[in-house]
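User: Run a structure prediction on this.
Assistant: Running it now.
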Amino acid sequence: MENQYNYYHSEEPQNDSSYSSQPNPEHHEKPKKKMPKAVVVTGCALLFGVVSSATFLTTNVVGNKVLGLDQKAAKEVSNTTQNKATLTKTSSVVTSDVSSVVESVMPSIVSITNMSVQQVQSFFGGTSQQEVTSAGTGIIIEKTDSELLIVTNNHVVADSNQLTVTFDDQSSVEADIKGTDSAHDLAVIAVQLDKISDDTLDKISVATLGDSTRLKVGEPAIAIGNALGYGQSVTTGVISATDRESQTTDSATGETTGSSDVKLIQTDAAINPGNSGGALVNANGEVIGINSAKLIGENVEGIGYAIPISDVTDIITNLMNQETKTKVSEAERGYLGITGLDVEDSDSQRYGMPTGVYISEVSRGGGAADAGITKGSIIVGFNGITIDSMESLQEQLQYYKKGEKVTLTLQVPGDGGEYQEQTVDVTLGSKAQ
């Protein structure tokens, strides 16, 4: 079943049957199938329309201190009896107060506000640019000599003109993009330490990362995030499943997105709009996942997804080590000098091609031509970031000026039809006239 992205207008009346279906005694219809025709995986970032003053749910589609669970957080009462054959029987009751865990983790969680400009379809069928504000969450993962580094979802910071981070003490500062990876829906943003007051620096902390490879189905899970843009809140549940696959389709464009080699954690802890990029933590206060999406649809309830932290540690580290980026103006922006087409999963399976950007044309005198890149090659990486579409490639290029050098990872077809990986340095040129 193919899942979809969609957009939800909060002012439209909603029928409760979108969450649970009751039969109508006045109509003798055949019972519906258990699963609906359209099941939606929604990336839980919250989108506000600034011009229309209306609230939208965007459905984009995935330490320094060891935090302990004290006796108040979990009390275990055990009665053990032992017979002559040395058989041991233990009965125990665990209470679910997680306040101590949350109190320890909350200083490492931030709210993120993204001011961006998006194309909006008008009532009469045309499109226009509109400034919108979206809300999400982030996790403080590193403090360097000059920056505070925060991991979140790529869809939380996508198309950003201005990012604002709000800390646990409600103080706010501007942030910049450090690195993004749309293929895995991950991003790292940076806040300059000299922008943060000493009082705030004393109150915040770096999150402790756990080991998501050791998760057991049924163990407690705590989701923390900026739900509905109201500020940090907490929901609890369990690990429902691991290694879940998810693929989504943007209902506005029909494009398949969100497919990844990383499988997701499923939880019944409520993950709502604004929770994207927030922390899924275990009973020890360790981050085991990055809240990313939820499954919505008729007869679907309590299915949320998080990106397992251990599976993306290398990706996050790579994003952390990139230079902090600011968008380059159109006049200064650098270009590869290619025309490209998306190679999606379906194309890859049908034609035996790697997923990425197929180079259908190389412009004479452009950076790609000067670097010896030829038609038919497939771009799969940009400065170490996975590239799976023209959109993800353009997302990276928007931070680089003409004359700057970038590194492309290519899959190049050989004489026998097999693809071979090549790494090529390209000096970006001007936009073709």
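Residues 66 and 213 are 18 Å apart (CA to CA).
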